[in-house]
Specification:
It is built from 9 helices and 9 strands. The chain is globular. The protein has 3 domains: 73 residues; 65 residues, Orthogonal Bundle (DNA polymerase, domain 1), CATH 1.10.150.320; 61 residues, Photosystem II 12 kDa extrinsic protein (DNA polymerase, domain 1, Orthogonal Bundle). It is an alpha/beta fold.
């Protein structure tokens, strides 16, 4: 009897471990070092970007050299990220030193074959949306056209336009012929907490501008005190700032 109970306990324990493995696989481990406030090892969701690793490490120090740092580059796999300081050698100060987190070379991404991690390399597709695409594909079958993506929650015309000509479906370039338009924002984003993907999804915010906003936030010690700080971005006009004020707030 005791032997039977023990076997049941082992079986349940093994089942619990096996069920936990998929959840663990959704994270990567990144050792963040250099000119950050809290160096150390951090578990980040797959598809996280350089800026996410920096924020997890408490943001950059005042002596950090971020001029040549690609804040929106996705981190791929376990590895390390070292943020150089202004005192480092010029060859090192112009870029972040990365190991095993480099982004794979650009290649066509097929919507019916790509993994969730590969999908995060596409414009406007973050980790959560990538997972939704994979789940939708498994439940509803492969995509026959780019327009089929609108059945995925969080994907609208703006995203479809961005993906047009960038992805493939069964080896053929996929295009979107629908009308362009802005995806409405349900609530204002806190500019001090918004991610790159959330920034880029806003009306009138290009990938370049999203990166510039994140860079400015870093330059201000990780926090902007007012929306008017965005005027420090080259080319930022009063009209553009007024437009952004509809979707952004400072908290």
């Amino acid at each position: 009897m005791k032997h039977s109970i023990w076997l049941r306990f082992v079986a349940v324990s093994l089942l619990s471990v096996s069920l936990a493995l998929p959840a663990q696989a959704q994270f990567i481990k990144v050792n963040v070092a250099g000119a950050v406030n809290k160096p150390g090892k951090y578990a980040l969701p797959k598809g996280s970007r350089t800026i996410d690793a920096i924020q997890a490490a408490g943001g950059t120090r005042s002596d950090a050299q971020t001029a040549g740092l690609d804040l929106v580059a996705p981190l791929k796999g376990d590895g390390s990220l070292t943020i150089p300081s202004k005192k480092d050698a010029p060859s090192q100060a112009s870029r972040a030193v990365q190991s095993s987190t480099a982004v794979a070379p650009n290649k066509a991404i097929d919507l019916n074959q790509a993994t969730a991690e590969e999908l995060t390399n596409l414009p406007k597709i973050g980790p959560s949306t990538a997972e939704k695409i994979v789940q939708d594909r498994q439940v509803n079958g492969p995509y026959k056209s780019l327009a089929d993506l609108d059945r995925v929650s969080g994907i609208g015309r703006g995203t479809l336009v961005k993906l047009s000509g960038v992805v493939t479906i069964n080896g053929a370039i996929a295009t979107y012929e629908g009308k362009t338009g802005s995806v409405p924002t349900k609530a204002q984003l806190n500019i001090n907490q918004a991610t790159y993907d959330e920034m880029e999804a806003l009306r009138g915010v290009s990938p370049k501008l999203a990166g510039q906003i994140l860079q400015l936030r870093l330059d201000h010690g990780g926090r902007l005190t007012r929306l008017e700080d965005l005027k420090e971005i080259p080319g930022m006009t009063d009209a553009k700032l007024k437009s952004l004020a509809r979707d952004l707030k400072v908290e």
